[in-house]
Design a protein that fits this description.
Blueprint lengths: L7 E5 L7 H11 L3 E6 L2 H13 L4 E4 L5 H14 L5 E4 L13 H4 L2 H26 L5 E6 L12 H20 L5 E7 L5 H4 L4 H11 L8 H11 L11 E4 L14
The structure holds nicotinamide-adenine-dinucleotide and ligand 0WE.
Length: 262
């Protein structure tokens, strides 16, 4: 019996088999969780429904996190099939492409700033609001995905860094607000991984090979490794952990200079 058996897990953010959310769904499914999925738009519907079949998903429903109506409709539908939700995974991030290419001060706009923070940070508490009644008093667990750009600068991450800093503060405030009803809230700060969201980024392959050299484990992390850490954090094994940012980055964030020896 897996350590998530009997848990009902809603996973938001599957777009391809490479998605971090797919690594998480694989680990949850292996550990016995019942899975529910959402997709962002009609373009992704068929594909995400296909993944749903692999994980025996209880449902695959639409949800654009920019829309309050979508979020309301999502939880109304879930209420019809599940008596509650034990786990909610938020694996969503977005800024307009032109914000992620060039000098931060030059390329950042009011509109891009607003979209990045809305989709990448606000949407986490928006989903928590929608799920709140269904998650109450059942040792529920919320999880989101962050990146080191929240704390350190790097080329081109730009306004996404601010949005991730906001997301990490969101984790702490949500943990404090929902703790009294038994709901935990955490984030995983993952090292760089080649996914759809990364494929549009200039020099991403170079960043992956540089990251490999500087990381204590001398390799990049995988969605499987993020999935396993996610399964732990969302399980009873992590019952004392909330408001935490867990690094799954091979140790990269602990270093200040890469080795030139090899
Ligand atoms: P991905 O492209 O597979 O996933 C991003 C998801 O966000 C997609 O499923 C997309 O449909 C969804 N999304 C975007 N806008 C949305 C909206 N308005 N409504 C609903 N869904 C929306 O890429 P990924 O790398 O798996 O990204 C998942 C999370 O992991 C993001 O928060 C990202 O910032 C974070 N992260 C990624 C890396 C990396 O290097 N890939 C590292 C650390 C953290
Ligand atoms: O959070 C991310 C990427 C999120 C992302 C990606 C895109 C590409 C397509 C958000 N918005 C968009 N908008 C698009 O139009 N990561 C952690 C991956 C990532 O992105 C980087 C990185 C890393 C790592 C951008 C610059 C530098 C490093």
């Amino acid at each position: 019996m897996g350590f998530l058996s009997g848990k009902k897990a809603l996973i938001v953010g599957v777009a391809s088999k490479l998605s971090i959310a797919s690594g998480i769904a694989n680990a949850f499914y292996r550990e016995g969780a019942e899975i529910g999925l959402t997709y962002q738009n009609e373009k992704l519907k068929k594909r995400v429904e296909g993944f749903g079949e692999n994980w025996n998903a209880a449902f695959t429903l639409p949800c654009d996190v920019a829309s309050d109506d979508d979020i309301t409709a999502l939880f109304r539908e879930i209420d019809k099939v599940w008596d509650g939700i034990d786990i909610l995974v938020h694996s969503v991030g977005f800024a307009p492409g032109h914000e992620l290419d060039g000098n931060y001060v030059d390329v950042t706009t009011r509109e891009g700033f607003s979209i990045a923070h809305d989709i990448s940070s606000y949407s986490f508490v928006a989903l928590a609001k929608g799920a709140r009644e269904l998650m109450k008093d059942r040792d529920g667990s919320l999880l989101t995905l962050s990146y080191l750009g929240a704390n350190r600068t790097l080329p081109n991450y730009n306004v996404m860094g601010l949005a991730k800093a906001s997301l990490e503060a969101n984790v702490r405030y949500m943990a404090n607000a929902l703790g009294p009803e038994g709901t935990r809230v955490n984030a995983i700060s993952a090292g760089p991984i080649r996914t759809l969201a990364a494929s549009g980024i200039k020099n991403f392959r170079k960043m992956l090979s540089e990251n490999e050299k500087q990381t204590p484990l001398r390799r990049n992390v995988t969605t499987e490794e993020v999935g396993n850490a996610a399964a732990f954090l969302c399980s009873g094994l992590a019952s004392g952990i909330t408001g935490e940012i867990l690094y799954v980055d091979g140790g990269f964030s602990t270093t200040a200079m890469r080795s030139f020896e090899e």
